[in-house]
Every structure is written in C-alpha cells, then in structure tokens.
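Data availability (excerpt). The following record was deposited with the supplementary files.
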Amino acid sequence: MQHLGLIGLLLILLAAANWFWRAWRVNVPKPYVFQAFLLVGIALGLVALILGHQDAVAPWTIGVGVLLVYLTATGGQRLADGAIDIGQTIPTFIAPDDKDNEFSSASLSGSRVLLKFFRGHW
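Predicted structure:
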C-alpha cells in the first residue's frame, strides 16, 4: 500500500496512452470510460495523501489526472449526430477536387470507396 500514488499515476498514464493511440488511429474514444480510469487514478493519489504515505508521486498523480479530466470534459472533439457509419451510403455532394474540377459523389455510385476525413482541433 506504500505506492498507491505511483499505481494511480501508472493507471492515468496507461489510460492517456490508450486515448492518444485511439485518437491517432482516428477512432475517437468515448470520454466516459477514459474519465472513469482517470478518476480511479486520482482517488488512489488522494488516498495516498490522506493516509500520509511518503509518496512524492501522489501530488503529480492528482494534478495530471485532474488536468486530463478537465481537458477531456471541455474538448471539442465529438462525433456529430447523424455521422456516417461504416457500410452506409454517403450523401450526395459536389465539391472541387485537387485540380479545381467539379467532383460529384454520385460518380462513385456502385463501387466500394474508402473516404477518410480529418478535422484537426488546434
């Protein structure tokens, strides 16, 4: 029980690594499960402080955990309502291509196509 702060920090860092891995793979995770792991890590840091363990990592655990909970709670990256899922038909649209020629999504009808969109938030 001497290392509750360290265990909490490792839990927080593993959850954060998982979050960034999934975000990098453009698989936006639901924040609730991630935040639950962060809160458990924060709780372990608080217990270490309350029990008076000489664990210098506990304040870092609490600080990093609170920061990540705040960032995930206030972040703007969310899946929109009505987002297209795998296997669904794309809506009809017309947009310019890389050479400024008009492109219509209707021209893709009847063929399998992979569309990948990236929208950054920085």
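Summary of structural features: The mean pLDDT is 83.
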